[in-house]
Amino acid sequence: MSDARSGATRLEGDGKRILMIYGTPKGASFCHALGETYANAARSKGHVVRVLALGELQFDPILHDGYEHSQTLEPDLLDAQREIHWAEHLVFVYPVWWGGVPALLKGFLDRVFLPGFAFKFRGRSQAWDKLLTGRSADLLVTLDTPSWYFRWIYGAPAHRQMVRTVLGFCGIRTRRLSEFSPIRTSSEEQRQAWLRKAEKLGLSV
């Protein structure tokens, strides 16, 4: 297999091709600290890690006409599709806001995970082909809500959305979903422990 950028041939035994997607508009956050720790650990094991910081991309996050009419993809989104095709393993790092993923990440999914790219319906039937099958994903998710409350009281809507109705729908198998919460009241000691957890996740890809 070839690296889409360098054209270098991947040899047997080489590391995985990993794409890390920061789903927050913020330029610096604990999400970024988690992602950088994960990425550095993965690189130390010989994996190739590329990064998409959605807050740095130029695109309209609104799918104005739904899927009834095509909407021209901006260059950054075309690049994102190429990167997703290149990757064997995806890492989504994002906070939960109002029980769901940030609007920027939702807009990215709406614009990029399109019919013909991520999935394809079979005629007029309810059956569909999962066009991104064969890829795996890790989700690193920060919350201010305690994990138990988010799961048992709110029903973990953001988790179900990402794991089942987005990634699973397109054939991407979520390997691990790791929560880091509550962020707002966490101590420096707790954050260091979470960073160590992110490091272990990156080492075990």
UniProtKB/TrEMBL annotation:
Q: Where is the Flavodoxin-like fold domain?
A: 16-199
Task: Cite the entry's keywords alphabetically.
Answer: Oxidoreductase
Q: What GO molecular-function term can you cite, just one? A: NAD(P)H dehydrogenase (quinone) activity
Cellular component, GO, one term: cytosol
Question: Into which family does the record put it?
Answer: Belongs to the NAD(P)H dehydrogenase (quinone) family.
Family matches, as PANTHER family? NAD P H OXIDOREDUCTASE-RELATED (PTHR10204), NAD(P)H DEHYDROGENASE [QUINONE] 1 ISOFORM 1 (PTHR10204:SF34)
Any idea what this protein is called?
Answer: NADPH-quinone reductase (Modulator of drug activity B)
